[in-house]
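Have a close read of this protein, sequence plus C-alpha cells, and explain what the C-alpha cells say about the fold. Thanks in advance:
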Amino acid sequence: MHHTIFDTPIVNTIMRWISVRLLHLLGWRVEGVTPSESKYVLIAAPHTSNWDFPYTLMVCFALDLRVYWMGKSSLFPPVLGRVMRWLGGIPVDRAKSANLVQGTIDAFNHAQRLVVIVPPEGTRDKVSHWKTGFYYIALGAKVPILLGFLDFKKKVGGVAHFYYPSGDIELDMLEIKQFYRGYSGKNPQQFDDEKIQVKELPK
C-alpha cells in the first residue's frame, strides 16, 4: 500500500497532538483503545455529512490508528488526489465493487499490517440499504471487523469492539446494525437504523 500521513513519524506525532487538543476544545471525547491486532476492517457509522471525514481522521490520530480509507473516485482529481492519497485515501470505482472487494482481500493477504476504513452506507446521503463489501472483505481476508462510531449528539467518537464474521451474513449484519442503534450522525435524518436493510454485492 502507498505511503501515508499515518506512517510519517514527525507529522503523525504533530497531528495526534493537534487532534487530541482540538477534539477537547470542541467538547468531544474519544472512547476506545488502540487495537493490538495488525490487520482488520474498520467500519464507521453513521455516515451522514462531509464533517465525518475530518472528525474520523482526528479520532484515528487520537487513537494512533494507521488507517487507509475508501472514497469515491471523484474525490481524487489530479492534484488534490495526491493529497487525499497521502491522507490514506483509496479511490473507489463504485461500478466495480466486486473487483474492489477481491483487490482489498489480496492486499490484506500480502500485507503484514493493514487497516482499511469502509463506511457501510457507502455514501453520506440517506440510504435504505447497507452495502456488504466490508463484510466480504473481512470474511475473505479472515480478519475481524472493528466497530467505529461518531455520535454528534453526544460528541463522542471512537472504536468499540471487534466483530468476527461467521459466514452467516444475515445474522452477522443484524448484530452489527444492532450495535449502531441510538447513534446520531451530523444529519440524523439521514440515518434511519430501523429501516436500513442489507444490499448484497452484484454477482
